[in-house]
């Protein structure tokens, strides 16, 4: 809560005590999709702890749960998977747009443009109904990995690889990026990251999607805006920033001194801190375990160096500031070890969060109220335009 100048009463002039910068601590609506349970530091999707979902379910099952409120039975899952697999290929124009965007732009810009273009093309009747929105959402879930993979390949000077409908979403993504599917433990680590990234209540990008939806705009407009919000390094962009930071530090023995300098320079340490979790992100232990399995399976000197550096920085940050890592800290290094290029990390987050965003778009549409807060005016008092 931050006081501005003493505000006179009237529209857009709330009392100073009512100003909540960054909406910190403000409850803006109800939601039935997910919640953080502070007492147990756990996160539930539609009531199920995310740890239990990550232990035994596929990302596709979690997407079904977020959208429909229940886990699918065997028949529902078969149908859901068949529809997702059928929608993966890009039409020629979308593929050409992805191929022609400048390689100097960030892959999140490519994804944002692709979502916007797919919206212009989408054949689904735009009545804003939950059924129409779920169909649009499924098409995006299916196509976004194809866009991300094709974009990574063109930047490496390679042709796109067509999706393989015999593979699940996670395996198919590796196939489209690298032309091969890695060991099951690697795919599982990736799938766990997708499950953990899928949904997190009223975070900045989801809230963005809800704001756009609240004007009765369409799903693709809301998702396009959400991609833009996720790109920033204070939000989803942090998983890339973590890897850039580790590369900047380089030597594990330098972590402590680097942190001293960075904190003295008032730099934000990427992958640490969180608006909601003040004693540690509920998703980190599971992602860190998955990362540790990747590290153990690799064992190369380069991986050992990175793992030692990662641990050294985490230990120093927790000791010095009492600020814990968020999900982006282990996920960033995990994506690097899986072979993805750094600028693809946040697009991978999008491939997962598309489920949460669109669940919220449907929820917002079903009980809509226009989202329009007030700002406390601090500009000049009313005055008159001088005679010309
Ligand atoms: C999936 C996700 O989006 S998770 C978030 C990913 N983002 C990052 O990792 C970026 C780095 N982290 C941050 O910038 C912040 O922790 C945020 C933006 C995530 C949360 O910010 P807020 O809730 O506004 O935290 P807030 O600013 O109140 O932090 C409290 C104090 O801790 C400090 N702090 C918080 N996080 C960090 C950090 N990563 N590095 C250094 N200091 C930090 C703040 O500077 C502040 O110090 P002060 O009281 O001396 O001013
Ligand atoms: O909840 C937040 O503010 C950010 C976050 O961790 C997420 O979106 O997963």
TrEMBL record:
InterPro entries in UniProt: 2-MeCitrate/Citrate_synth_II (IPR011278), Citrate_synth-like_lrg_a-sub (IPR016142), Citrate_synth-like_sm_a-sub (IPR016143), Citrate_synthase (IPR002020), Citrate_synthase_AS (IPR019810), Citrate_synthase_bac-typ (IPR024176), Citrate_synthase_sf (IPR036969)
Keyword presence, Transmembrane: no
CC annotations in GO: cytosol
GO molecular function: citrate synthase activity
Record carries keyword Transferase: yes
Reaction equations catalysed: oxaloacetate + acetyl-CoA + H2O = citrate + CoA + H(+)
Record keywords, A-Z: Acyltransferase, Transferase, Tricarboxylic acid cycle
Recorded metabolic or biological pathway in which this protein acts: Carbohydrate metabolism; tricarboxylic acid cycle
Active-site residue numbers: 274, 328
Protein name: Citrate synthase
Organism: Streptomyces lonarensis
Phylogenetic placement of the source organism: Bacteria, Bacillati, Actinomycetota, Actinomycetes, Kitasatosporales
């Amino acid at each position: 809560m931050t006081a501005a100048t003493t505000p006179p009463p009237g529209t857009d002039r709330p009392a100073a005590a009512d100003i909540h910068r960054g909406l910190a601590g403000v409850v803006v609506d109800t939601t039935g999709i997910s919640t953080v349970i502070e007492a147990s530091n756990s996160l539930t999707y539609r009531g199920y702890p995310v740890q239990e979902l990550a232990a035994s379910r596929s990302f596709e099952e979690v997407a079904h749960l977020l959208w429909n409120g229940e886990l699918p039975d065997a028949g529902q899952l078969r149908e859901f998977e068949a529809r997702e697999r059928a929608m993966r290929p890009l039409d020629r124009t979308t593929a050409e747009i992805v191929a022609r965007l400048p390689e100097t732009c960030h892959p999140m810009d490519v994804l944002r443009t692709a979502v916007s273009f797919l919206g212009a093309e989408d054949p689904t009747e735009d009545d804003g109904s939950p059924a129409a929105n779920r169909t649009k959402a499924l098409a995006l879930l299916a196509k976004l990995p194809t866009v991300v993979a094709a974009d990574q390949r063109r930047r490496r000077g390679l042709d796109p690889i067509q999706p393989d409908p015999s593979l699940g979403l996670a395996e198919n993504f590796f196939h489209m990026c690298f032309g091969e599917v890695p060991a099951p433990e690697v795919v599982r680590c990736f799938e766990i990251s997708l499950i953990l990234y899928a949904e997190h209540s009223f975070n900045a990008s989801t809230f963005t999607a809800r704001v756009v939806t609240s004007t009765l705009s369409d799903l693709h407009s809301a998702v396009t805006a959400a991609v833009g919000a996720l790109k920033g390094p204070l939000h989803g962009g942090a998983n890339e920033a973590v890897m850039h930071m580790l590369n900047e530090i380089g030597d594990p023995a330098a972590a402590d001194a680097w942190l001293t300098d960075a904190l003295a320079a008032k730099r934000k340490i990427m992958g640490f801190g969180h608006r909601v979790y003040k004693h540690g992100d509920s998703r980190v232990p599971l992602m860190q375990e998955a990362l540790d399995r990747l590290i153990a399976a690799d064992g190369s000197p380069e991986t050992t160096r990175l793992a030692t550096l990662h641990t050294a920085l985490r230990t120093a940050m927790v000791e010095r500031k009492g600020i814990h890592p968020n999900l982006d800290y282990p996920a960033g290094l995990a994506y690097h070890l899986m072979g993805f290029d750094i600028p693809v990390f946040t697009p991978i987050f999008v491939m997962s969060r598309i489920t949460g965003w669109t669940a919220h778009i449907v929820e917002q549409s079903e009980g809509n109220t226009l989202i329009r807060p007030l700002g406390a005016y601090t500009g000049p008092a009313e005055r008159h335009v001088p005679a010309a």
